[in-house]
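Quick one: structure for this chain?
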Amino acid sequence: MIWRIIIGAVVCVVGFYMVKKPEAALDFIGPIDFAEEHVSGGSQSFYKLIGIIIIAVGFMVITGLYGKAIVWLMRFFVGT
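Got it. Here's what it folds into:
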């Protein structure tokens, strides 16, 4: 249980820094052509959006809800 909290916290910190400093992610990963064409803020806004999703995943890991979220997504997309 403690490892789940530690791993979730590390994932949340990574997501936080992607939201706080998207320039660092842009320098490390590079620009995304899809984001430059279709997202109004370009790659920086896209990296912020990815950071927010990573933070949500980190909180799901901490609380143990990631399994239920995966089942919900599968039901939503597959239609079972």
